Amino acid sequence: MSNGVETLEFQAEARQLLQLMVHSIYSNKDIFLRELISNASDALDKLRISSLVDKELVADTSDLHVELEVDKERRTLTVRDNGIGMSREEVVQLIGTIAKSGTGELLRKLRESQDAAASRELIGQFGVGFYSTFMVADTVTLVTRRAGQSEGTRWESTGEGTYTVEAVEDAPQGTTVTLHLKPEDSEDNLHDYTTEWKIREIVKRYSDFIAWPIRMAAEGADEPRTLNSMKALWARPRSEVADEEYHEFYKHVSHDWADPLDIVHMRGEGVFEYEALLFIPSHAPFDLFMQEARRGVQLYVKRVFIMDDCAALIPHYLRFVKGVVDAHDLSLNISREILQQDRQIQVVRRRLVKKVLATVRDMMANHADRYETFWREFGRAVKEGLIEDEENREAILDVVSLASTHDAESLTTLRGYVERMPEGQSAVYYMTGESRSMIENSPHMEAFRAKGYEVLVLTDPVDEIWVDRVGEFDGKPLQSIAKGQVDLGAAQEERPEGFDALLAWLGERLGDEVREVRLSTRLTTSPACIVGDEHDITPTLEKLYRAMGQEVPPVKRILELNPTHPLVTGLRTAQEQGGADEVLGETAELLYGMALLAEGGDLKDPARFSRLLADRLARTL
After folding, report:
1. Does the pTM of the predicted model rise above 0.85?
2. Which of 23, 82, 203, 405 can pair with 227 through a Cys bridge, CB separation 3.0 to 4.6 Å?
3. pLDDT tens per residue across span 380-404
4. Which residue segments constitute the domains of the chain, with CATH numbers given?
């Protein structure tokens, strides 16, 4: 020690560790200022609390603020607060953490780790926020005095081998950090952090909602100007915020031109406190179904901006929701830049999802026009939640609207469908397909139409998957009218006799195409239809998988015949009378091809089918 200055050595590997942090952790060097302002805000919060708890604390709390100062000639940037400050022991303990953290062991683990994410996790165990300053500075000087103490402390380092600590007599209350910036043309200093516009830009982006004023002297101005708005809408009671303020804020965070459809303003209290201000847009973004689209809400911690698109807080099926979540106490990694997947995040996520779904349910019950807009724009995405989110599946089912044969002009809820079910109907019937017209004209619909049974008309690609995953609603099974056997009640006619030979012959003739040939209970006017077994995938889903580049093994389906149709009875008579094998075979092919086309399937040989059909039509002229 000399003249009160104590020089302490970093461990031998400290410089290497600092370089690793600077170049491997932070993707955006601007965040160094966010870190310093955040530390200053914390210090102001602590002083306010300490002054309330300790009435004997001698401290000036009349004008708590953060001050920024630049010196272009000396190339310095100073961040100053008049908060709680630090004692000498706290400086060594908090600012000198890196010197006491076992850097050699850490570096050894980093070298052994081949996973970049794992490396970041290891580094994230250290408090490195303050050290982000060495991304832009050659030397960092810190002067601090703890409120209530008379002596201050000066800390300085170049981030290499050593740092110095000395006592100072005239330090003001709080902490002052001065960065001696790297040369403007340095590769490590892409921006000039002595320019007013750059400082304003960073403060606006990361620290606009900090509760304390952030001031900086402007060129040509007599007094420092406050750079941040300090207006965190989410921290104010909803009754105190006008709709116009909400709408303006929504446009700010979403970059949308239209007002939101609905607002979700909530506060979580108890062990883990947070505020959330979420918005349901009035129209879907163009990239809603693009895989590379950005999603998530903005995350703040105590009004400090952390990240733009925090996907961990909102499930994928609610990716259209915009807004802000501000946590009071959240576990963050690598000095707030990377979010840890911990219990706190999961708790907030669950509460946000339940609140959003409750808002949609209220919209459905009390604001029909808004709900119709919501479902038109986002319904297809919400139905993805029936596959992804088993915990909230019942709540999602309550807000789902679907097309049905009950009313071609409007949608129905599943609850409404069940309430309309006639006595004797035991299942919720549905059919999936590429379009409403294809489903309505399908042979599978005939018996259900004749019985007056309502059928859900499902044409979204996601419908093919969620109906199988959900399985039932309100104790009623969801049953496809194009799969398995259908039981339409005791009134259906008994199975006709005399078709066994035809069924056996067709089963052998079409054995390469179908698994079974049987008589149908679902046809009234069409001669035949193709049905799947209970667990077979549909032709539409098969096409979907192939479009995504996934090979699907061929599935043999079941050919059902309408025993009352003239074509089927005529084929039975011709087969019993020993008709020409070639003619009967072609008729069988045509019968199967027509049934396949009617259900949306693809012919293996369309040219042959067209030729057979043309020849047969020519013979009738």
Report:
1. no
2. 203
3. 999 999 999 999 999 999 999 999 9
4. 5-226 (3.30.565.10), 233-372 (3.30.230.80), 400-621 (3.40.50.11260)
